[in-house]
Amino acid sequence: MAKIDTDILCIGGGVANLAAALKLMRTLKAAGVEKLPRVTVIDKGRNPGSHVLSGAVVDPDGFKGLLTDDEIAKMPIQTKVNKEAFHLLLNSSKSFPIPWVPPMMQDKGMPVGSLSKLTGYLAKLCEQEGAEVYTGFAAVELIEDGAGRVVGARTGDKGLDHEGKPKSNYLPGEEIYAKAVLLGEGACGILTEKLIAKKGLRSPRGHQSYAVGIKEVIEVPANESRVGEIIHTFGYPADMSTYGGGFMYHVSATEVMICYAYALDYAHAEVDPHYMFRQFKAHPTLAQYIEGGKTVAYGAKVIPEGGYYSVPEVVADGALITGDGAGLVDTLRIKGVHIAMQSGCAAAETLAECWQKNDFSYEMLKGYSRRLKQTSGWKQLKRVKNVRAPFSVNTLLGVAAAGCAWATFGAFPFWMVGMEPDHEELLPLKGGRLPEKPELAATPTSPDRLTDVFMSGTIHDEDQPCHLKIKDRAKCAECIKKFGAPCLRFCPAEVYRLEDGVIHVDFSNCLHCKTCQIKDPYQNIEWTFPQGGEGPRYTRM
Asked: What does the alpha-carbon distance between residue 413 and residue 402 come to, in Å, rounded to a whole number?
């Protein structure tokens, strides 16, 4: 196994770590430092942005102090919000337009576009500054020294067959050693979660909670008048005790982004988020904007929604946690891109000081936590710290709590509203049977699940070890009997199928969203890493 030395290792090539790499190089150059660190970014996707998915209406606060005005002008942003609306969907055919967009939800003037394209743009800027960005490499294990300090990571082997034996194209993984490691894997990152558990970094005040976001890009007949128009919704098809909502963005005359997010603390085992997504698109409020169109891209990811109380300690000896992996998402606005970038910049400022003093001790790295808490994004998290939890009780209570939190700058409610882990909320099927539901005919704007998966571009070599492991088949059988095989429904990619009473895993369909690991009521699914370079190939998401 080859050993590689670098100075700063960034695991995950999302906006948080790319912002960190870019800010670090620029900070040291501005300070006149002659010897610059070797900064290495590795990502498991095929290309920069391949595994990145978001709305995205981007709060421009994330660019401040990072990009120049010229670089901001050249960003691959498709338009800016010029018209916005907020709707309560009452049922499958009726809606109530909110007379005004709540202040905390207003996006007018903000840039709208593809986060995967923005990620690719940031990766190029990093390389221009001297950072190294490598894709197709999955970091599968953190390396610690004898004192328990994180000193690097090991990348996964390539070219193993389904039994784990080397094939003719076998390439062993590599060990990469660094003075500091940045974990920017995104929500529910495997190495991040293991580090949090091992080092006791989990917040004692609250569990992390997630939603699954399902998104399509739909090409529609040209309509210049709608460019920059966006709609946010809540209500149908969610029930009154589950946090859920959607959006529709007209990003160009011929392109609409549409997404539905549904909280994974839902209680009813029959819930099928992809089915709900199709119901959502069929609502007249949304359907009019995509009529005559055709779906051309698809993806899914989980969104950390636990908020302020769920953020873990972001510093371990030798390692910093950035972005969604730390749960840095404004749970009211469902915005995290700008906070992720701010976290990357805070990490960069800390590492710049460490480099100049030649001191990467735990005490020096702790400066990252202090700098993070000084950002505007952190202050936003604190203001809405109790917004998410009340929605699990009742939507109206959640709306009231959101208004109180915003009006009092987070002071009320002054106590912590608790939440249970998402997988513990699932209730057994009533009567042990799934309720019948009408079939939805596939159309160009409402494809079935497998057609959607095809449009995600996801690719996995099927002759390799399965990266989704069912740990105990007896528990699996019990889950089928008690909950009616919920993995068939909560997975947005049809990875799991039931044949002759046994669950089979089609891992080649996997979108790397981690929903299965989060929502499985028995915690019986273990998500491991496929070969680097595999998985979804997002280009427009």
From this structure: 10
Mean pLDDT over residues 84-98, rounded? 95
For residue 516, the SS3 value is helix
| The length of the chain, given as a count of residues | 541
Residues 142-166 pLDDT 10s = 999 999 999 999 999 999 999 999 9
* Sequence-distant (≥ 6) Cβ neighbours of residue 331 within 8 angstroms: 305, 306, 307, 384, 387, 388
Q: What is the mean pLDDT of residues 49-71?
A: 95
- For strands 139-144 and 132-135, give the pairing: unpaired
How many domains does the chain contain in total? 1
- Domain assignment present for residue 216? The answer is no
What's the pTM?
0.96
Mutual angle of helices 337-357 and 376-383, in 10-degree steps: 130
Range of the domain at 63: 2-69+117-203+311-383
Please give the full DSSP string across 386-439, using - where no structure is assigned: TTTGGGGT-HHHHHHHHHHHHHTTT-SS-SPPP---GGGGPBPPGGGSPPP---
CATH number for 11: 3.50.50.60
Pairwise CA distance, residues 211 & 332, whole Å: 13
**Dihedral sign, Cα of residue 66, residue 70, residue 76, residue 77:** positive
- H/E segment holding residue 21: helix 15-30
For 305-363, what is each residue's pLDDT tens digit? Answer: 999 999 999 999 999 999 999 999 998 888 999 999 999 999 999 999 999 999 999 99
